[in-house]
Amino acid sequence: MGDRMMAEPQDIALELSGVSKTYQISQGLFAASKPLRALDNISLQLRRGEVLGLVGESGCGKSTLAKVLLGLEKPTRGDVRIFDQPFGSHDRKWIARRIQPIFQDPYSSLNPRKSVREIITLPLRVHSVGKTSGWNDGVSRMLDLVGLPQRLIDANPSQMSGGQRQRVAIARALIMRPEVVICDEPTSALDVSVQSQILNLLMDLRDELGLTYLFISHNLAVVEHIASRVAVMYLGRVVEQGPAARIFETPKHPYAVALLDSILTPDPSMDVPDVDLDGNFPNPVDPPSGCTFHPRCASATSLCSRLRPEPVQQAPGFVTCHLHDPNQQKDMA
Amino acid sequence: MVSSSRSEINHTSTPGQQLRRRALRHWGLMIGSALLGLIVLIALFAPFIAPHDPYAQDLTLRYLRVAFMGGTWEHPLGTDHLGRDYLSRLLYGARISLTIGLVAALISGTIGTILGVTAGYFGGRVDTVVMFIITVRLSMPVVLVALAVVALFGGSLTVVVLVLGFLLWDQFAVVMRTSTQQIRSQDYVTSARALGCSTTRIIMTEIMPNVFNNMIVVITLEMAHAIILEAALSFLGLGVQPPLPSWGLMIAEGKDMLFFEPFLITIPGLALFILIFAINMLGDGVRDVTAPENRN
C-alpha cells in the first residue's frame, strides 16, 4: 500500500499497443466465416491513479476491450503490458490480483444462490488469502468501506436493492486490493438517484485506496464528472483521446463533436438536441472503406472514403481524422 | 449465530423460509410428496405390512376375488393365477418400481448432466460433438435397443435398470445444456473467471447451484418415464422376469383373464397410475416453487 501511494504519477498502470481483436463470425454451414474486428489497432495508456473515461456507442468494442484487459480474451494482435510486464507471461490469477471488474448489471453480476458473505469472500478463497477465521473481519471491513450495513452480511442478493447489490459487487472487486478497476458502465442499470451515490463511492474509494479506473460508459455526463482523461471509440478504433477538460470543451473529431452534442441538457427550452449524425451504426462485419465514420460524417470528403486516417498528435491528445492531419490538409482542398 | 442474524433482518425472511412457505402453499407439491412418501414407506416396510409371502403359491386358491367382491379377508385383494396373495405382491412390487425409477434416473442423470453442462459451458466444438451424441441417442428406439440387449444378456432387474439408465439421459443433456448456456452468460460467471477461478470451481459453485432446480424437475420426469418403460418392457416379457412381483409383469400375467377377472389388471394398473401421478405432481411442484427465485 505505502509504496503505491508514493509512486510517481507518471507511472503507467496499463498499456495497450496496437491491440486488435478479431472474431470469426460464422455465416452458416457452407459460407466462409467473416472476420469481425471488435478492436482495431488500439493503443492506450492508463496512468496510475487516473480515471480514463472510455466512451462510444453500443457495439463499438468497449466491452471487448474490458475483456481483453481482464485476461478473459486474448488479443489477436498487439500486446498489453501491466506495470511494464507483458500480460502473456502471467497466469489469470496474477492478473486477477491486479485488475478487477465492476459490471453494469448488479442483478446479473451476483450469484443469486450465494450470500453476501460468500460472494465477497470468493476472491479470498480462490487465491487462498489469509486464514478462514480472518475472513469475517475482512468482509466486515469491506461492508463498511462500501457503505453497507453489517446486518446484510448473510442476506441474499434477491433481498437487496440495485444500489446495494452494486455495492456488494464493488466490495468483491476491491477485497483483493487490486490496483486497476475496470468499471463497465457501473451505473447505467441503476436508478438515477442511486447513480450519483455509487459514483461518489467509486471516487472516494479511488482516493482512499489509490485505485486506477478505466471507466467505460456511454453516459457522457458521468464521464465528464469523473474522468481525468477521455478516449472516444468508434467501430473498434480510438478516434480521439486527450484530457477530459479539453475534449469536452473543444472536441476535434467529428464523431466526438456529435457525441458531445447529444448530451441532454436539463433546460427544457433547449428541446432534444439536434445531433449532426447521419444514418445508423454500420454493420461491424462489413465496415465502410477508408475512415469507418465517413458515411455518417457531415464534413466527409472523397479522401475519407478512400484512405484510412492514422492518429495524429493534437496537443494535448490524439485525433484520428484527416481534417486534423496537417499532411492531408493540402489534399483535402 | 444463524438465528440472531436472521432476526436482525426484520422485514425480509430468508430465501429458505420463503421457499418453505411457497412449498407449503402448493397443493400439488403437498399431495404428490405425501403419496410418494406413502409409497416409499410401503416399499421399505413391505416385509412387515404384507400379509403373506409374495412368492408362496397355493393352487387350491387360484383367482380368489377381492374381499368386498366376494373374496375373503384372508386375501384382501384376492389371488393370482398361481394362488399368490395379490396384496403382498403389490406391496413388494413398489420396491421394484421405485428401485428402477431411482437407479435409472440417477445413472441417466449423471450421464446427461455431465454431457449437457460440458456442452453448455464450453460451447463450440464440444457442443457440436455432444449434440451429435444426443442425436445418435434420439435416433435409437428404446424398446428395440432393450429387445436386443435382453436377447443378448437375458432379462433381469439389473439389465433393465442399466438399459434404461443408459438410454434415458437425453432429456437431462438437452435441459442441462440450455440452462447452462443461460447461466454461463451471466456476469457473475464472467466475474468468477476474472477472479481467476478454475473451470471446475465455476461449474461446481456458480453454475450447478443455479441449474439444480431444473435437474430435480427432469429427475422426477425421468423417474416416471423409467417406471412406465419398465412396466411396458415387463409386460412384453423383456423386462423383469417372473416370479419377481413387478407391477408391469402382474398386468402381463393378468391379461389372459382380462374379461373374467379384470381386477388382476386394474389393481396393479391403478398402483402404477398413483405412483406416476405422485412423481409428476412432485416434479411440477418443485418447478413452480423454485422457479420464481431465478427471476429476481
Structure in words:
The complex is a heterodimer of chains A (333) and B (296). Chain A has helices at 2-6, 62-69, 92-98, 116-126, 132-145, 162-174, 192-209, 220-226, 244-249, 254-261, 302-306, 326-332; strands spanning 12-25, 34-47, 51-55, 77-82, 85-86, 99-102, 180-184, 212-217, 229-234, 237-243, 312-313, 318-319. Chain A contains 12 helices and 12 strands. In chain A, a hairpin with an 8-residue loop joins strand 1 (12-25) and strand 2. In chain A, the strands form 2 sheets. Chain A has an 8-stranded mixed sheet, with helices on both faces. In chain A, strands 2-1-4-5 form a 4-stranded antiparallel sheet, covered by helices on one side. In chain A, helix 4 (116-126) crosses helix 5 and helix 5 (132-145) crosses helix 6. With 333 residues, chain A is of the alpha/beta class. With 296 residues, chain B is mainly alpha-helical. Chain B is built from 13 helices and no strands. Chain B has helices at residues 2-8, 15-25, 27-44, 46-49, 86-122, 124-138, 142-153, 157-167, 170-184, 187-194, 199-235, 247-254, 263-295. In chain B, helix 2 runs antiparallel to helix 13, helix 5 (86-122) runs antiparallel to helix 11 and helix 11 runs antiparallel to helix 13. The interface between A and B is medium-sized, with 39 and 27 residues.
List the helices and strands and how they pair.
The complex is a heterodimer of chains A (333) and B (296).
Chain A: H1 2-6, E1 12-25, E2 34-47, E3 51-55, H2 62-69, E4 77-82, E5 85-86, H3 92-98, E6 99-102, H4 116-126, H5 132-145, H6 162-174, E7 180-184, H7 192-209, E8 212-217, H8 220-226, E9 229-234, E10 237-243, H9 244-249, H10 254-261, H11 302-306, E11 312-313, E12 318-319, H12 326-332
Parallel strand pairs in A: 3-8, 3-9, 6-7, 7-8
Antiparallel strand pairs in A: 1-2, 1-4, 4-5, 9-10, 10-12, 11-12
Helix pairs in contact in A: 4-5, 4-6, 5-6, 6-7
Chain B: H1 2-8, H2 15-25, H3 27-44, H4 46-49, H5 86-122, H6 124-138, H7 142-153, H8 157-167, H9 170-184, H10 187-194, H11 199-235, H12 247-254, H13 263-295
Helix pairs in contact in B: 2-13, 3-5, 3-13, 5-6, 5-8, 5-9, 5-11, 7-8, 8-11, 9-11, 10-11, 11-12, 11-13, 12-13
